[in-house]
Design a protein that fits this description.
Elements (H helix, E strand, L loop, with lengths): L1 H20 L7 H4 L8 H12 L10 H19 L6 E8 L6 H21 L8 E8 L4 H11 L5 E5 L4 H14 L2 E4 L4 H4 L11 E3 L5 H12 L8 E6 L2 H17 L3 E6 L7 H10 L5 E4 L3 H13 L5 E4 L6 H7 L7 E7 L3 E2 L9 H13 L6 H23 L4 H9 L3 E4 L2 E4 L14 E5 L9 E2 L6
Parallel strand pairs: 1-2, 1-3, 3-4, 4-5, 6-7, 6-8, 8-9, 9-10, 11-15
Antiparallel strand pairs: 10-14, 12-13
């Protein structure tokens, strides 16, 4: 497999040299792609590019877009006529298909990827006429299983990308395999340990984020909460002591400081059977506030709501999408749903009134996803599925721009700042930034009292 990848990259290098000789391209990155080390090929190319441009800034970040701008029109023209119809692009979904998170992460990710392939092929949009194949493996959200499955998947020389291990532990465990094989990885996992070390010259050069992250997920929650009370009202924060909960709490504290919001926090152990005493103390410490932000979801969210009812505290609550799952809503009670907002939700999947439909690629996704899964309305699962749908579209756009199915060429295009419109909005990566979607203004909160039967949810503050 490694030999074939190197031969493919050598061919890509020869094509680049030919373009250079004819004046159609100005990069010598193809020469670097002749190395056999899949973890460093594009890093070295990026370094040569920065030197070649004689950029005034040391890291080359200002010059990369300018150079790419000179190359991309030629690449786009070539790819629009290039015949890649004899090539197969294999994508893999490696996610939990068994266990408690299967219906929330694994199954929706598979359905989203299948929906994207159906969309591209049925609309004649597969880049260069490539054929897509999807491999699906159960990670069981076990890091050791993730590693063994990823190694097996990378034996396929047509493999371009592995999509969506959903836990931070699984995503981190997979990194050495991606580095060795030179294969792209996309994940919804949110952990600073991963994203602080994901860039072309970093420890995890093949990794890209497929979901919102950090303060993008936090600011809409805080903005909605503070709008529900008098200025200066303290916000109470309750979060589980998990990788997700702690990273979100850290982002919340940073956002609150930037926004000038007073924050009082409480942490709790995941699975704790009774949170009433801790919540009573939190309420007291926060001055009997009417505002609660939580990063609890699913079972922990049920326990949190039960604790709130035990101490007769009915604050406005902002929380993650796992707060609007049926068991949580039942525990909260229908009479309190208008005091709950969940998010974040991409603006492309938010509407002004119940029954309104989304537009554009959000419709293309939802129509196929609902058919694939039988889903009656949008929710956590469909938003995760949309991330997988979008990552297939990102890969397809990069193949078209690169005129190649080689993962190194695809990564180079993404690192150069290619913008891809998809169902959850636009994605743009760079050599230094692999988060993709970083503008909090592109996301909002959904009002829990309305259904999402059209594939879109009602935004808070719109009246429904």
């Amino acid at each position: 497999m490694r030999t074939n990848r190197v031969l493919r990259r050598a061919a890509a290098a020869l094509a680049a040299v030919t373009l250079l000789a004819t004046g159609c391209a100005g990069s010598d990155s193809g020469d670097d792609e002749e190395t056999a080390d899949g973890a460093t090929e594009v890093e070295e190319a990026a370094g040569d590019t920065a030197t070649e441009d004689a950029a005034p800034d040391a890291d080359g970040t200002e010059d990369a877009p300018a150079e790419t701008g000179a190359e991309e029109p030629a690449a786009a023209d070539d790819s629009s006529t290039a015949d890649l119809s004899g090539e197969t692009v294999t994508l893999a979904v490696l996610a939990a298909l068994t266990g408690p998170t299967a219906t929330v992460f694994g199954e929706p990710s598979e359905a989203g990827a299948r929906a994207a392939i159906d969309y591209l092929e049925s609309e004649g949009l597969a880049a260069g006429g490539v054929s897509y194949e999807l491999e699906v493996r159960d990670s069981a959200e076990d890091p050791a299983t993730v590693v063994s499955q990823a190694r097996e998947l990378t034996n396929d020389e047509s493999l371009v990308a592995i999509l969506s291990p959903s836990t931070s532990e699984s995503a981190l465990a997979m990194q050495p395999v991606l580095n060795e094989a030179g294969v792209l990885g996309f994940t919804t996992a949110a952990t600073p340990e991963l994203w602080d070390n994901a860039c072309a010259d970093c420890e995890y050069p093949w990794m890209f984020h497929a979901y919102e992250y950090g303060q993008v997920t936090v600011r809409p929650h805080l903005e909605w909460l503070v709008a529900q009370a008098d200025p200066g009202t303290t916000v109470a924060l309750a979060y589980p002591l998990s990788g997700y909960g702690e990273s979100q709490a850290e982002a919340t504290e940073a956002a609150a400081e930037e926004m000038g919001v007073d924050l009082v926090s409480m942490s709790f152990q995941p699975g704790a059977p009774d949170l009433s005493a801790q919540l009573r103390q939190l309420r007291q410490d926060a001055g009997d506030t009417d505002l609660l932000l939580t990063w609890a979801a699913y079972g922990d969210a049920v326990q949190l709501v039960n604790g709130l009812r035990q101490i007769d505290w009915t604050p406005h609550v902002a929380g993650p999408l796992g707060m609007v799952e049926a068991p949580v809503l039942e525990a909260l009670g229908e009479e309190n749903l208008d005091r709950l907002a969940a998010g974040v939700v991409p603006n492309t999947m938010l509407v002004d009134a119940e029954g309104d439909e989304p537009e554009g690629l959000a419709v293309e996704f939802w129509t196929r996803f609902a058919e694939e899964t039988g889903a009656a309305q949008a929710g956590t699962a469909s938003f995760v599925g949309a991330a997988a749908f979008d990552m297939v579209l990102v890969v397809n756009a990069a193949i078209e721009q690169a005129g190649s199915t080689d993962p190194a060429a695809i990564r180079e295009v993404l690192d150069a700042g290619l913008t891809v419109d998809a169902s959850r909005g636009a994605y743009e990566y760079s050599a230094d930034d692999r988060l993709g979607q970083e503008d909090a203004a592109d996301f909002g909160m959904m009002a829990a009292q309305y259904s999402c039967e059209t594939g879109a949810c009602v935004a808070v503050g719109t009246g429904g």
